[in-house]
């Protein structure tokens, strides 16, 4: 039994025809956009997991630096 990775052009056309019959031509673009957004969010989350530790550390450093700068500047303004 061949794997799902070996669908081929004929199989894709058959799937598209079945989807067109089930959902109709007005719903297919909406479904495509929803699928694209979902895939994009999944890719972003995957990248975040792969390099998220470094990004979170950098964000914390930047936010701490911004907080300390605002504290020091507010301290000088009040004097």
- Using the CA coordinates, give the radius of gyration: 25 Å
**Would you count the extended β strands for me?**
0
Largest sheet descriptor = none
- Percentage of β-strand residues: under 5%
The low-confidence parts are none
Oligomeric form of this entry?
Answer: single chain
Give a short summary of the structure.
This protein is mainly α. It contains 2 helices and no strands.
Care to describe what's here?
This protein is mainly α. The longest helix has 51 residues, at 28-78. Helices cover 85% and strands 0% of the residues. It has helices at residues 8-23, 28-78. It has 2 helices and no strands. The mean pLDDT is 75. This is Sec-independent protein translocase protein TatA. Keywords: Cell membrane, Membrane, Protein transport, Translocation, Transmembrane, Transmembrane helix, Transport. Belongs to the TatA/E family. It is found in: Cell membrane.
What's the arrangement of secondary structure elements?
Blueprint: H1 8-23, H2 28-78
Task: Please give a handful of descriptors for the protein shown.
single chain, 79 residues, mainly alpha, elongated
């Amino acid at each position: 039994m061949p794997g799902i990775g070996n669908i081929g052009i004929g199989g894709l056309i058959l799937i598209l025809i079945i989807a067109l019959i089930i959902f109709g031509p007005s719903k297919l673009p909406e479904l495509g956009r929803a699928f694209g957004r979902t895939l994009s969010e999944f890719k972003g989350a995957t990248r975040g997991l792969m390099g998220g530790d470094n990004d979170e550390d950098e964000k914390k450093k930047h936010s701490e630096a911004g907080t300390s700068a605002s504290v020091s500047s507010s301290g000088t303004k009040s004097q």
